[in-house]
Specification:
- By secondary structure, the chain is an alpha/beta fold.
- It contains 10 helices and 11 strands.
- The strands form 2 sheets. A 6-stranded parallel β-sheet has the order 8-7-6-10-9-11, sandwiched between helices.
- Helix 1 packs across helix 2 and helix 6 (125-138) packs parallel to helix 10.
- The protein is elongated.
- The model has no long low-confidence stretch (mean pLDDT 93).
Length: 263
């Protein structure tokens, strides 16, 4: 075990780059996880760990549940160094360097009557993380991200998903790939759109379906407005015409679960 006390250490510089730059994560195929809970979820999800860093406040006993299930280098950081490299203010004083996974449609395993969440061109990492957390709460089959503008290993995605990103099914693809896959699997698509004539609770959502959401600024593109099997919307009774995307997702997927008696 090595102790690191300098911010100029090459490993520390690498951690900072991976936390801050998507291009660096993509180039190296690595990303950073903060927090023991999140690390344990990644371990449960089958992620391959490369290195573990921990604050000098911690002991090997504190890390035993994580370290005993893996075989990787350990690095103890002084409190001063850890506070500078940590992305979160209230981290549980553990940071791990982990290998990325691939997330293809072909890897998804579906239930008998799947419920899927589709996101087109999602750009805010916090929203993506919150949607994944909601997907976990309702035990949906997967979140499928089309033409993303952020990468799923952004620290804010991990933080806002509360680590559920690592134990749930995620796929990344193009709009065209998803549409072909949905046709092949006989899954009906519903586009969440202000132009919809019907409200979400007026639809029969007991059959296999995917609810597809666009960006908060522009909504869905014409691709899904034209190709989705139906359009649905949420009643808006005040001055504004839309909700935060994570709120919209939560409202609609819980209606699906209600119609299915929360099974």
């Amino acid at each position: 075990m090595e102790k690191i006390s300098s911010l100029q250490n090459s490993r520390i510089k690498n951690l900072k780059l991976l936390s801050e730059k998507s291009s660096e994560r993509k180039r190296l195929g690595l990303f950073v996880i903060e927090g023991l809970k999140e690390c344990m979820m990644a371990l449960e999800g089958g992620y391959e760990f490369v290195e573990i860093y921990f604050s000098e406040h911690y002991t090997l006993n504190d890390l035993y549940a994580l370290y005993s299930n893996s075989n990787m280098p350990l690095f103890e950081l002084t409190n001063a160094v850890f506070s500078k490299v940590a992305y979160r203010d209230n981290t549980s004083e553990v940071i791990a360097l982990v290998k990325m996974k691939t997330h293809h449609l072909k890897h998804l395993k579906l239930s008998e009557i799947p419920l899927l969440i589709g996101l087109e061109s999602v750009e805010k990492p916090g929203n993506l993380g919150a949607v994944i957390r909601t997907m976990d709460a309702v035990n949906a089959d997967a979140v499928i991200i089309c033409d993303p503008r952020t990468d799923i290993y952004n620290p804010n995605v991990i933080r806002n998903s509360v680590g559920t990103l690592f134990v749930r099914q995620i796929a990344v693809c193009s709009n065209e790939e998803l549409l072909s896959w949905l046709i092949e699997k006989n899954i009906k698509s519903y586009a969440a759109a202000l132009s919809a004539k019907h409200f979400y609770h007026q639809q029969n959502l007991k059959t296999s379906c995917i609810l597809i959401f666009g960006t908060e600024s522009d909504g869905l593109t014409d691709f899904w407005l034209k190709n989705a099997g139906g359009q649905i919307k949420i009643p808006m009774l005040g001055h504004n015409d839309s909700l935060n995307i994570s709120n919209s997702v939560a409202i609609m997927v819980y209606e699906v679960k209600r119609q299915r008696d929360f099974k």
